[in-house]
Write a structure and sequence with these properties.
3-stranded mixed β-sheet; 6 helices; alpha+beta; 143 residues; 34% helix
Length: 143
């Protein structure tokens, strides 16, 4: 059984809840990523994605230089630990249609992130079904 520790990306860049949406977008550009874990006092409190920025901020006309990450981030974040199996985390990803999961230590500190890309390149696991389930269209959230 392969564990998350074997496939995760370490040294994850995070962003504060009080940073601007513009800074989050700049950081995504610099790191070539589409999501950044959001921390407050060292604890994971959310994730901000390029989609969060475009749909929750840009689409409603917010100023990216003054809008805070806290105002657009997703707060219902699924997490995992280093000792969980890749299979279990893939099932979780498929269940809620997400492509990346922050990895936390026993104190709730973020120590890594695992993405579908990590699993595809580092684990011989079959991710076809997971990718299919993640990519299945769901009803849009218009709230």
């Amino acid at each position: 059984m392969q564990t998350i520790q074997e496939v995760m990306t370490r040294d994850v860049q995070t962003i504060s809840t009080q940073e601007t949406v513009q800074r989050a977008a700049q950081l995504m550009d610099e790191l070539n990523v589409g999501a950044i874990p959001v921390v407050d006092d060292g604890k994971l409190v959310g994730m901000v994605t390029d989609r969060d920025i475009s749909v929750r901020s840009v689409a409603v006309g917010q100023d990216p230089t003054t809008t805070r990450v806290n105002d657009v981030m997703s707060t219902d974040v699924r997490t995992c630990t280093v000792d969980q199996s890749v299979e279990d985390v893939l099932a979780q990803m498929a269940d809620v249609q997400i492509r990346r999961v922050p990895v936390l230590d026993g104190n709730g500190q973020i120590i890594g992130i695992v993405s579908l890309g990590d699993v595809v390149t580092k684990a011989p696991a079959d991710v076809e079904q997971t990718l299919d389930e993640i990519s299945t269209p769901s009803e849009p959230d218009r709230s």
